[in-house]
Amino acid sequence: MYAKSQARPDTIKVQSDNGSLRLQFSTKYNPIFGGKRKHQALGMKDVPENWQKAIAIAWRIEDDLSHPEWNKLFDPTFAKYGLKTKYTAESKLATSELEPDTEITVGVMWEAYLEWKKTKVEETTFKSVFQWLFSNVLAGGTKSNPTGANILKMTLDSPNLLHEFTQAKATTKRGDYFAKEVSLAFEYARSRGLLRNTDTENPFVFDKFTTPALTTQQKYASKSVNGEEKQWHEVQDEKKLEEDRRAFTKEERDIIVKAFYNAPTKFGCYATLVEFYFLTGCRPAEAVPLTWKDIDFERNLIRFSKSLGTCTRKVKDTKTGEARLFYFSNNSRLKALLLSIKDQSSNILVFPDKEGKLMAPNVVSKCWNGTRYTRKLKDGTEKEYCYPGVVRQLVTQGVLSDYLPLYHTRHTYITLTAIANRHDNNALLYIASACGNSVDVILNHYLGCTGNNKIVEV
Fold this sequence. Notes:
Oligomer: single chain
Order of helices and strands: EEEHHHHHHHEEHHHHHEEEEEHHEEHHHH
Shape: elongated
Largest sheet: 3 strands, antiparallel
CATH class of the largest domain: Mainly Alpha
Structural class: alpha+beta
CATH topology of the largest domain: hpI Integrase, Chain A
Number of helices: 18
Number of domains: 3
Helix content: 25-40%
């Protein structure tokens, strides 16, 4: 974190880095340090009493660098300031004056924002969205636009920043989310006093004067549906709901499960997991860390209390942060499946990988959709390997009418079970609770209508 109190130098900031304090020099000093931005470790822990010492050192260095005879006063070895470092700054410049004080770069702004953001969002989200996707977009290295401009190196007052940022925004499907976060990063930099010019405007707010696709009056106007006048909040976007909650039929579900059991060993070893997904409606990442202690065969229940991070490979809470109990009947297909797995396994995990460890979260998706990769051979040549996915193949062969991703095993279970129990509100409440959902979501998104405590299993 940055110091919140005491006056601080304008061009040399005190920062905390992994529990230790360091100095960050303004880019105006880049020529002194070989053309690169300088960070100087202080050898001090990040504790309140050391911040005062660090700020005092920063003032001494800035006083020397701002003096007309700075090249005589400034000690490039930092020994004068009580620091020990192997780095020696360049003592000569092309001119006797330092470069004009330009605004900070997008990279400096984004780096500071990431340091703050990683404490506010889930670790998986931070790594996959912010540290990987958004950072790559800013660096101009996305698959859709591999030759894009490196925005991270541009200053916030660069005249063509808006154009390049607009182009970058268009390269990601999450463009609006990306643009919002970059704009927030600028405001964060301003709030932390990182900007050199307090009058610098946010260059990432580029659409506040554009005409929206729908005006406010149009968005909230009443609509005529089948001859009946309805208010805006009574009209559902059926197309979106259908796209979000599409499901396989019961017959298609069984075709897919059978295809996995008949697949080559490379893919067939995941057949029991795929069937488990279809029979429980759990989120894919919730089944991977499941242990036999989470299954009670006497009470016939499964306790879903954790999931595995896709990027971090760390066990964490479920998406909703709550544990769920999933009940099954004594003669159900699910219980028979679990007993058969238990009889053949001595591992604490219900679905371990081939080495008995936690399975990679995306491995089943690759078997489902297919995978393609290139491997370098001993002779130096590269060979491409392509494995068609089980479900993708069924679609190609015309056995399935359409392709749906692995996550739709969840939608399939909820849809089929909800339809079978649509007239029993208590049953729907159980389904919602067991799947980490709500009755409203099931009624509106899976059934599209309102609906024996005994669950009709599918």
